[in-house]
């Protein structure tokens, strides 16, 4: 596969639209008090009535991450940029809204109704877009992202909606940002069995903490919902900025290293990256699949910021802590001269206690560590 298109537009927190959340009384409109109907200008001509501001409806009371993100995403669209957000469960007030998320008991994209709580709702990204692999049940955030995400990203990035950049970032943001919110809101566990430790600092958890405490004398949720929208919006745009300016350009670097891997070692199982800090794991897994590599890459070399070199084992999966080929057990937790003497390789600095990474003062030393690990790993498999 050739190099992906380069993107020159940065996305930052400055893209955040102003957060306006109102609890307007039924039938009221935010512009009504500004000018009486039929107001005349000084020239004697009637000034055209301004187009009514759009209204986004969602439920009041305790708020969650999914509707905060759904509302934020909608307000990135030109049609809803200045939209009033109406928080209510009153069916009549919701009926007056242009779009309703996370309340109302219906999913009807033709009428812009995006609730997921009704018993009949079973939609996932895969069911609505068969070209996508994710089968997690959607929340209101996932529904809005599914229907409008490509349009939103195209507008923020100045890229074609059906282009390679928007497609890649759309998938990346769903898999690594939105899907987690969908799963948590729908009560879907990350894995089977009892978790080994508590995970309490997710974005969904931090949004939850913005609600009033049960024993606070003031139980109003409006200010907290505004803060929730700002929180999820900032993190969404910062994540997009990272994926656009750091993750996406890294693919070309990893692809070049894959093509040159036999120049590094005749096994083709050692990769050398010209720059450290590059997010290489997911790109490597994707390239291995796309190029149908006959032998998987086991170890990756790269320079660190201090001018020394690292050798890191490829994980068994992009987000796994398990390594395909950890560095030899005898080296783990040993440092400096003791490690160099044990390994028979000059310049060793360290090997992590789990064996997933080690360091050497020179490229040659790091490569020797990688080759020795490959040799020992092969001996262990044959034994």
Q: What would the average pLDDT be, to the nearest integer?
A: 89
Structural class: alpha/beta
Number of helices: 11
Distance between the termini: 38 Å
Largest sheet: 6 strands, mixed
- Structurally, the number of domains stands at 2
Q: Order of SSEs, N→C?
A: EEHEHEEEHHHHHHEHEEHEEH
Helix content: 25-40%
Shape assignment: elongated
Strand content: 5-15%
CA radius of gyration is: 26 Å
What's the number of extended β-strand segments?
A: 11
Spatial strand sequence of the major β-sheet:
1-3-2-4-6-5
Report the uncertain regions: 5-20, 22-43
Task: Detail the topology: elements first, then pairings.
Elements: E1 21-22, E2 55-58, H1 65-74, E3 84-87, H2 91-95, E4 99-101, E5 107-108, E6 113-114, H3 125-128, H4 140-157, H5 164-185, H6 203-208, H7 222-259, H8 261-264, E7 270-272, H9 281-291, E8 299-303, E9 309-313, H10 336-343, E10 348-351, E11 357-360, H11 363-382
Parallel strand pairs: 1-3, 2-3, 2-4, 4-6, 7-8
Antiparallel strand pairs: 5-6, 8-9, 9-11, 10-11
InterPro entries: MYG1_exonuclease
Pfam family, one: MYG1_exonuc
Family: Belongs to the MYG1 family.
Can you give a write-up of this model?
- The protein is an alpha/beta fold and 383 residues long.
- The chain has two domains: 13-189 and 197-246, no CATH class; 260-382, no CATH class.
- The protein has helices spanning 65-74, 91-95, 125-128, 140-157, 164-185, 203-208, 222-259, 261-264, 281-291, 336-343, 363-382; strands at residues 21-22, 55-58, 84-87, 99-101, 107-108, 113-114, 270-272, 299-303, 309-313, 348-351, 357-360.
- A six-stranded mixed beta sheet has the order 1-3-2-4-6-5. A five-stranded mixed beta sheet has the order 7-8-9-11-10.
- Strand 8 (299-303) and strand 9 (309-313) form a beta hairpin.
- The protein is elongated, with a radius of gyration of 26 Å.
- The relative contact order is 0.09.
